[in-house]
Amino acid sequence: MNIGIMGTGMVARAHAERLIETGHKVILGTRDPVQTLTRTEADFMGNPPFAVWQKLNPQARLGSFDKAASFGELLINATLGSGSLNALQLAGPENLAGKILVDVSNPLDFSGGSQPILFVSNTDSLGEQIQRFFPQAHVVKTLNTATAPIQVNPGLLADGDHHAFLCGNDVDAKFDVQRFLTDNYGWQHIADLGDISSARALEMMIPMWVRLFGAIGSPLFNFKVVGLKR
Ligand SMILES: NC(=O)c1ccc[n+]([C@@H]2O[C@H](COP(=O)([O-])OP(=O)(O)OC[C@H]3O[C@@H](n4cnc5c(N)ncnc54)[C@H](OP(=O)(O)O)[C@@H]3O)[C@@H](O)[C@H]2O)c1
């Protein structure tokens, strides 16, 4: 399948690597491909500049958001939460129409320091904003509650005995995303939380995730809900 991944950060790269391994073709979308390729600095997490990563992953193509979105039969939003609506607008609403948009973004605001707050919460969410702004896309919010390496390889922890969550308005899209997560990444336990308004809950798990990260000292952990069948 052709997959358009919106983003060039560690999440986008993790999905691209795994999806190429599983036989898909991917284009990663960015605001300015030339500028992205000329970056020479590691990001604040220590991830190498995009060009260095791409040399190691030559099958991963880079393009504008618009190019990645028109290429993808399925799309993944892996952009900074505060830039997601802009990125998807640049991708072009017509390129999102009728497609599944897997949304892994989080509405984080780090302006107050290392403990982020959410710039939307309680009565709305970024997942809902994306669905409202792009009503013809089938937005499925998922995987935002796990770090990138676990998103694409749950087997890294406890033989995969922990949970992914998802929500969205389109039942068929959620079914397809569940299968996509299982077939490509190996997720065994996926809890469907209902319509896209459950993105509020999924995004409001992130302050808890950040505190756990501080307590554990590693991002390699995940949530497991006892009592759920899947
Ligand atoms: N890091 C994790 O393990 C993790 C786990 C769960 C969820 N998430 C969520 O996944 C998303 C991606 O995270 P990340 O760490 O890989 O990268 P990130 O640094 O949060 O996002 C990088 C991407 O966002 C784009 N971007 C930034 N500002 C923009 C703007 N104003 N307009 C359009 N695009 C903009 C960048 O575009 P350019 O390519 O043009 O620079 C880049 O492609 C985030 O929402 C994050 O909260 C991350």
Task: Provide a short characterization of the protein structure.
The protein is α/β, with parallel strands linked by helices and 230 residues long. It is 38% helix and 17% strand.
Q: Can you characterise this structure?
A:
The protein is of the alpha/beta class and about 230 residues long. The protein is built from 11 helices and 10 strands. The protein has helices spanning about 10-20, 35-40, 50-55, 65-70, 85-90, 95, 125-135, 150, 170-185, 200-205, 205-215, and strands at about 1-5, 25-30, 60-65, 75, 100-105, 110, 115-120, 140, 165-170, 190. Strands 3-2-1-4-5-8-9-10 form an 8-stranded mixed β-sheet, with helices on both faces. Strand 6 (about 110) and strand 7 form a beta hairpin. Helix 4 packs across helix 5 (about 85-90). The radius of gyration is 16 Å and the shape is globular. It binds NADP nicotinamide-adenine-dinucleotide phosphate. NADP nicotinamide-adenine-dinucleotide phosphate binds near residues 7 and 31.
Give the SSE map.
Layout: E1 2-6, H1 10-21, E2 25-30, H2 33-38, H3 50-56, E3 61-64, H4 65-71, E4 74-77, H5 84-91, H6 93-96, E5 100-103, E6 108-109, E7 117-118, H7 126-133, E8 138-142, H8 148-151, E9 164-168, H9 171-185, E10 190-192, H10 199-204, H11 206-216
Helix pairs in contact: 4-5
The protein binds NADP nicotinamide-adenine-dinucleotide phosphate.
The site of NADP nicotinamide-adenine-dinucleotide phosphate has 23 residues, from α1 and α5.
Instruction: Report the structural category.
Output: alpha/beta
What is the approximate shape? globular
Q: Helical stretch count?
A: 11
| Backbone CA Rg | 16 Å
Indicate the proportion of strand residues. Answer: 15-25%
Order of helices and strands: EHEHHEHEHHEEEHEHEHEHH
How many β-strands, per DSSP?
10
What small molecules accompany the polymer chains?
A: NADP nicotinamide-adenine-dinucleotide phosphate
What is the average of the pLDDT values? Answer: 97
Major sheet strand order: 3-2-1-4-5-8-9-10
Ends: how far apart? 26 Å
Largest sheet: 8 strands, mixed
Helix residue percentage:
25-40%
- Low-pLDDT stretches are none
